[in-house]
Design a protein that fits this description.
Layout: H1 7-17, E1 25-29, E2 40-44, H2 52-62, E3 67-70, H3 81-101, E4 106-112, H4 139-157, E5 162-168, E6 171-172, H5 179-184, E7 188-192, E8 198-199, E9 202-203, H6 204-216, E10 221-225, E11 231-232, H7 233-239, E12 243-247, H8 249-261, H9 271-274, H10 284-290, H11 298-318, H12 320-331
Parallel strand pairs: 1-2, 3-4, 4-5, 5-10, 6-9, 7-12
Antiparallel strand pairs: 8-11
Helix pairs in contact: 1-6, 2-3, 3-4, 11-12
Amino acid sequence: MTGAASFLGRNLVGVLEEDESIARIVAIDVEPPPTAGAKTRMYQLDLTGPGVEVQLAELLTAEEVDTVVHLAFLSSPSHATAYAHELESVGTMRVITAARSARVRKLVQWSTTLLYGALPTNPNFLSEKHPLRANPDEPFFADKIAAEVDAGRYGAGRGGAVVTILRTAPILGPTVHNYLTHYLARKAVPTMMGFDPLMQFLHEVDAIAAFKRAIDRDVPGTFNIVGDGVLPLSTVVKLSGRLGVPVPHPIARPMLQAMWAAHLAEAPGWFIDYLRFLCVADGEKAQRELGFAPMYSTREALVDFTSAQRLRDVRLLNDPAQTRAEKSAATS
């Protein structure tokens, strides 16, 4: 498992530790996951380092790895675009090169439904057959699209290899931290004047369960992993207990981009598109072929996140120093 210390990684390691059918977990990251137990063997490798594919191939061979779970992707945009490119695009090439050398039988890779793009011509529900139309000039999208292409080539070129790509909807929950949770944690939430797009979320528990299902079952293909139902953005803001502040969209993008450059925003200018247009995926294929059915709807995922957020708000009022310290520890 690459990205073993990430949010998805550490939670998935904890689940696999308790599964009697799993003999050994090979955790690969720059730091160990706190959930590692007796089954986990930790290797501190940086996928951005030159020549790491040789080390990776050697350890995959030595550990007789059957399945690679590739989670080394950023859940939020980064100002360090060169590093993000090395980690996600180049890093994926290194992982796949190592897997090919070690003749790994199966690859499970994380992706996101954001790659479909938020466009005025989008249908109500995007299936896996729809092209990925997110802006290719945005590094956050370009690197993940390139990683998907490389994973597909591994499945096509390696005889008998099983490649499963899980495109998750934006993940919400009581313990996850990403650009979306930061956006919804604002007291005043900016929205686009005249627009109220439908939103779709995935509960953090369902995200982990989907990866466990993909590990347990050999089902090749790309799957949308989403919560049931959708909500208008106005309802999302209202349920979050926040104040929606409509902003004219012609000035919103340059304003957000300037705030992003000043490290005052959770996402760059492309985020505006997702506050204007539809980007909702169809999860029917995952239910039919992968056997994945979410436990939480979009609404329930939002409510669970909001309940935890309100508790954090109360604690911030009572003890701001402690809460800041806890938040820093959780996001590090």
